[in-house]
Amino acid sequence: MGAVRKILSYFDVFTTGILAALALGIALPCHGQGAAVFEWLTNAAIVLLFFLYGVKLSRKSVVEGLLNWRLQSMVFAFTFIFFPVIIPLLRPAFEPLVGEALFMGLVYVACLPSTVQSSIAFTSVAGGNVPAAVCSASVSSLLGVFLTPFLVSLLFSTEASGAQVGLDTVLNICYQILLPFIAGQLSQPLLRKWVLGHKNLIGWNDRSTIWLVVYTAFSNATSGGYWDKLQAIQLGGLVICCCVILIITFAATWYSSKLLGFNREDCITIVFCGSKKSLAVGAPMMLAIFGTLDNNLLLPLMVFHQVQLMLCAHLARIWRQGSTADSGGY
Hints:
Blueprint: H1 2-8, H2 13-27, H3 32-56, H4 59-67, H5 69-89, H6 91-98, H7 100-110, H8 117-126, H9 130-155, H10 158-161, H11 167-186, H12 188-197, H13 199-223, H14 226-229, H15 232-259, H16 264-274, H17 279-290, H18 295-320
Helix pairs in contact: 2-13, 3-11, 3-12, 3-13, 4-9, 5-7, 5-9, 5-15, 5-16, 6-7, 7-18, 8-9, 8-16, 8-18, 9-16, 11-17, 13-17, 15-16, 15-18, 17-18
């Protein structure tokens, strides 16, 4: 029973909702006019999501965070340089396990910014530098709006993926992400107090947007016969690949931070903020860049998201218990 409870502890409301949306998309896919309605709802929800991000994100926090330039530089380097370098280098080992299409999904994961909520939460649980985590995660999400399309254009084969970051893509990003975010920032004097006072409601909006994206994508996949082409061994290989990527990144962030003289609290912050990738930003950004929700990109992102939550939860528990305080390792 103890093992069962431990497994269930990893499945929070958000994760359960993702799994439910996935199952619903497979069992009850929408067709025809229904598919068009859900596509419109998904686009509208993404606009609202980034508008509320703009309302919530404190400009003061971003400015203060930038002052701790050494820590911010480490998080930036791992998020936007280390990941885009290490994953393509692992292609000879990973592609035979998952196939070319799903491997490109892992490459897409490499292009994304860090998470916000879970990076901060795990840093807090593990006894890290929470203010620095707030700043790092916030700045990472903001930079991701600009850097993710740039990295996609560098790393993807245009012929194979259709990832042409041209004028249409830039306009899509502006309409769906950047303009709503700027509008949210400008609306802070009117709305920020109300939004911060209704965190539960806003949190449900964040989660439901991702659930809607997942349902729409997997509904389209079912209608298009995607699951007939996916093999169970590829899914298992995807989990293995995500575990390997995260373990390498955990080790690299921890030991490089130690080597550069960061204290324990800052090292923990760098590990959690520099090793994570955002499903909340990645799914909407996919729609803006590619013009569609590609299941070969979304599935690796969803698997990586769940694996990072489970491994980070385990790591946070170890650090919270002080198991590594003396040894300085894992």
